[in-house]
Amino acid sequence: MPLAKPIRADRRKRHAANARDRVVKLKGDIFHSTAILCEFLYYAFNTILGLREVYPKHDFKWDKRYDIYLPMLIDPDLKGYLTKVTTQLKPWLETKSVTRIVLALVSKETRETVERWQFDIHTTAEQPPQPEVAAPQTAPSAAAAADQAQFQPVARSDHDMQAEALQIFRQIFSSVTFMPALEPDQCLFTILSYVNKSAEIPAGWNKSDPYIISATADQVPIHGLTTSVYKLVPTVTYCANQAQQTEEEAEE
């Protein structure tokens, strides 16, 4: 009987230590996963703006990342803007406050959205996303809904995540070959973040139009990126009749 108390005490200490280890590991996973996603999105934004010629080709340089060369903006103001956006994503990701990021390309002439690059962010089953407060969203695709329902936490190596990122960029490069061509300097861009009601909104961020494509649109799903905490599901929606309109104008 005298051994009972020390045994219980040791067991409690061991369980407490295990609990602390789990908390430390979870926090480490969240911080690492957040860094992976923010870095990926920074490169993705640059790549899309470069490949879609939102700015002239001479405004980009090509850097190797994820074992592929990607177009990167040179202008310090534009680089600073993208850095500001992805930096603000960090606290939102760490608190599970953001569920979607959108890069919208808008025609300078008509002010209509011509492309919508959407990145849905799903969390593990233990920590589901909360209701959003941002502008109305389009209904999720069946594939995206299935991904969210089936996603379970899994250990992911940096090598695995780098390989998935490479696959995404290859698919982005492939996608732009069949999408309607955009003239250089034809579009503006904006970045939207969908966050829930509890999220802290810093100065300079405001409620926004969802920049939905009003014309007939096609949607292309893109391979996802999975970390130990998040699953990023990209899709691109583009104005399907844009090429036809361009051809008609040329004929006139």
From TrEMBL:
Residues 31-236 form the HORMA domain. GO terms for cellular component: cytoplasm; kinetochore; nucleoplasm. InterPro entries: HORMA_dom (IPR003511), HORMA_dom_sf (IPR036570), Mad2-like (IPR045091). Keywords: Cell cycle, Cell division, Mitosis, Nucleus. Gene3D superfamilies: HORMA domain. GO terms for biological process: cell division; mitotic spindle assembly checkpoint signaling. It comes from the Eukaryota. It is found in: Nucleus. The keyword Cell cycle applies. Belongs to the MAD2 family. This is HORMA domain-containing protein. It comes from Puccinia sorghi. The lineage of its organism: Eukaryota, Fungi, Dikarya, Basidiomycota, Pucciniomycotina.
